[in-house]
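[SOLVED] Need 3D model of a three-part complex

Original post:
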Amino acid sequence: MSPPHRFPVGENAVGRYVAQRLMLAGMTLVIVSLIVFTLLRVVVPLFYADAVDLIAGEYGHGDPALTKQLRHDYGLSNSLPSQYAGWVGQLARGDLGKSLFNGRPVSLEIKDRLPVSFELGLIGILSGLLLAVPMGVVAAVRQDRWPDYVFRTFAIVSHSVPGFWLAIVIITFGSLWFNWAPPLKFRYLQQDPIAHIKIMLLPALLIGLTPSAGLVRIVRTQMLEVLRQDYVRTARAKGLGNSTVIFRHALRNALIPVVTVIGLSLVTLIAGTALFESIFSLPGMGQYLVTSVSKLDYPVIMSTNIIFALLIVASNLAVDLSYTVLDPRIRY
Amino acid sequence: MAITTPANLPGISFSRNADRRLPQRWLFALGGFARHKPLGFFGLIVVLALIGTAIFAPSIAPYQPNKLDLRHKLVVSSARHRLGTDKTGRDVLSRLIYGARVSITVGFGAVAITTVFASLIGMVSGYRGGWFDSVVQRFVDAWQAMPGLIILITFLGIVRRLPGVNLLLAMILAIGVLGIAGTSRLIRSAVLAVRSAPFIESAHASGAGGLRILVYYIFPNVFPLILVAATLGLGGVILAEASLSFLGFGPAGQPSWGQMLSVDGREYMRAQPGLALWPGICIGLAVFGFNVFGDALRDVIDPRLRGSGGKRR
Amino acid sequence: MADGGYWNRSGRRRLSRRDALRTAAVGIGGVAFAAACSGSNSNAGNNNAAAKPASSVAAAGGSSSAVAGTPGSAASAAAVAPATKQATPSSPLLPRTDTSAKAVPGSVFQGYTTADATNLDPLSSPSFTANAVGAYMYPRLIQFKPGVGVPAIGDVAPGFAESWEQPEPTRLVLHLRKNAIWDKRAPTSGRPVDADDVIFSWNKFVDKSVSRKDLANSTNPQAPIQSITAIDKYTVEVKAAFPYGPLLNSLAFGRYLHIMPKESDGGFDPRNDTRGFGPWTLSNYQRSVKFEYRKNPDYYIKDRPFLDGFDYPIIPEYASALAQFRAKKIWSFGGLRQEDVVSTKKDLPDLLLDQNALSRTNWVIYFGLQPGSPFLDDRVRRAVSMLIDRDTWIDTFYNVSDFKKAGYPADIVWHSHVSSGYAGIWTDPKGKDLGEGAANFAFNQAEAKKLLTAAGFPNGIDTEYRFISTGEYGTIFPKYCDVFKGMLEDGGGFKLQQINPDYQTEYLPKIYYGKGDFKGIAVGASTEYPDADGYMFAYYHTQGPREKVAFMGNGGDAKSDSLIEAQRKELDFNKRIAIIKEWQSYMATKMLMVPFPGQATTYSLYWPWIGNVGVYRAYQGETNPDETLQTLWFDKSKFTG
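Solution:
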């Protein structure tokens, strides 16, 4: 994670800071786009197969007229730099391209799929938080006593167990022992909210398990640190009750870095839902990418990567900026 | 970050002035480690066992990992096959033992790439400072913003179609390179903390060059941190390898835990639950071992770092 | 075939040769249905392969087929050898009585499929997944006739054409139905389906279909159909380039000529949307989520289908699909692993047990035949075949011993160079009909060793061994190959260096279509055809649609070529069978490639409230047979879900 950069206080300091972050974000996108472009439009045609061969399939193989036509249609007869420029221009206009195999616009697919992945990641991290914060707080308050050990062990173990493995084990043995099966038919939130939540809950919980481990540790450490601070001691000295001190004063401050971690790991989580999407047959982004990669549907692959990079960049930006709001100690 | 005087840390010492009776010192340190950090010590044992298994796989494994035993297929457990067999009668225990090789190779390979380049970048960037540091850090920012698993899936999905590509090597390279940015930042901040320490200044005063200072003064001081970062990174890499193999991006022909889980475990676990359970447990145990060992190591080296989120940084 | 006779069938062999052959294939049959209820069932993860030689082994159906469409074949192949079976399992097979008379219309069938379709256009998609989907909306001119209570044998029945006549061997005149109308939504807007659509579809097939070389003479001089032209609005004429026995079968085959509307060229995008006139309409399709089909109220057969529709959520994960099946959320499970049949039936005794039809696919082990290759020597190839322990291989992949232990009948049949699924055509390598070549099929390590020694390889051969491991042929294919490798290495001292080439760039151009110009041994797949001729011609004839296939090496084999040509132009059924059998005997002696070992009885399970399940049995396994799905109904009285 990138630490917030500090700049001298000045009239335009915030403005300059934002401008700098935006420039950085732009640079990130350019680098990602260059990598993806090089892989798919330079390396693949050079060592593997031209996109044209893939579209033409077997029936069009070795048919020069068809190949030429396709090459023209897909803008592949231009030079590489102009292809890249064309692609970036397309992206700038909000055109993410079309699938090679069914001609469906990528933007349409993403419109349906991104919310699913986003929601999975969000519910995942929220449930992780719901699990981690009480554990972390109790572990800190009861430092070096059994709740501390139990919750820390939980954190380490859940950090080590692969979530996708747990998912398969749960499905198989849940079915074998209880004839239980996860909800079958996917429903979008707007179609049927209750059914939707039932479907998303288990995968989201499993997704949230891994980050919850890290969160328990962060909450615990922060609580320990905050509890030692002067203002907490003052509050105690004033005669405030223990729970008031913990919840009013300590927890609030301890959660600041937690917010950062959440902001930063959310996109990583969204990107990591691919495994769960295929196990629970959820129509998210990860599954889209995996199937597209297996078919080498390059417009889809390129656009999906750019979308994820954009998300990460945006969330980093948001975290950086929100940090200044949340933590009054940071000034520009 | 206070790593200026590592000599007085409890239990273990990485001081570059360690005296000559190294074996005794190490044994002593190890004993202290076991006493103060029992869980971490357990992690160390798991890690060593894993490495030993990987190295001596051919002598430990009861069978060749790809040896078929068609008359004993999908055995759950028997005297012949302790952990049972898979669909074509291959011995699960032997495959797990050989699978440790893939995990260890990918783990250490990727972490070696990450560590070497992250150290170089972090140390030089942190020590030089100025415009050089600014430029490098902007690249690191961009690098860190790349969607990890997405890039890995894209990269491996494409690379595995190219002729003559060693998929294991590609996996090591990709995972390793992806981790450089984050680790380099960690090391850089440690270097920044050390840079203005008195003993560096005195080295400057005595006329030592930049390279000399980096190698003889800064490196020994950030080395413990590098070691911790590497150990904690290993668990993550092993998990990443398992996930990628599970998605089918692993190399064929040699057994790996993720692949055992995805190819055999997923489809035949009803007939032979061990096909899914054992590889999962091995992955979990290995990751657990590296994590608790790394945690303990960090606590010992710098207690202040305790609990700060591990490899997420 | 009498009900309840299933367990009493296949034991007493040695009746007549033909009966015995048929026995293997009869009484088995549901998988076609399983496929119907599960989309592309056995091909998980295969939807990306462009025109792949398709895969369907354990659960690809079809049934005992004679060369269909030929008078007399139906009766002869449908006859079942009466026999007694040794063991009786605790539960009987599902009843095979036609209950259409008491069928109650309505309700939505719950099935599933493992993979999404590449796109929805069966006439231009690079993948067969589009044919599986298209079959429900876009009928063919002729359809295969399902067997009722008995396996289908490849007879044909009216499709969009209600009748036809063949005034001369190369001319077929088809009379189209006048009551068929297209989807009522724009742009087809409920207009009548007519000859123009047929011509449009044929032209598109010739231009774009991956199967065009199988059928269209203009793309391959050896393909049978020269032209299809309209005589009037409701009559079309098919002109064959030469007299062709299986002409009707070809028109009925689910991967060939679907009738699509003219409007699909510009009026709507057939890759993402459908406007059909079949029994079903695709009412709701969400990419990688689900297919939902609903009954077409304007379907040209009035009281079909019985069901209001069927839902196919896409469930790629085996564990999930099985969990759903056990929880009664899906009603039939075509992809059920044979390893799980016995335990699932034991856990849930209400499930109906059904024996599947034998598969008509036959995959091969083939050889690099570069100059100097050891495999140019007949003796080496024959030795390879003898080193394969067919019974053990089949036991491994068809769960034979577990079925026997549980008291389920499980018969092993070996493939010759024709799949054992082609009952009546196939010659049993275990019998005497195959002649001297039969010895090459028997597991005989000592003889193999002798042959290798005589050929100058007393210590086996060090060479390369190639197969696809990336899922294009399914997840189990690499395991087949592992076992072959083990058998050659253990028994013959072979040292095989395993190479897993990339499917598109290495395997297809250099190995599969490499005309034998590679080193060592390779393992490959083939697809299903409407008739044995399609298979033989495509893979073994030098001028076939897959003329570049490496199975026979560069020059092919003149005698094999001439036999294949002779049988396909022979219109007399019995004479044709004789030629095909001669070809098998010849191939057995030469072993230019080694066919896959064979197959054994496989089973499916269904929930009992599916009316007519297992009764109407489709001829085609690999492509979704809409012919049987429209006969299913929902039996509420048995519903416990």
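Edit: DSSP finds 14 helices and no strands in chain A.
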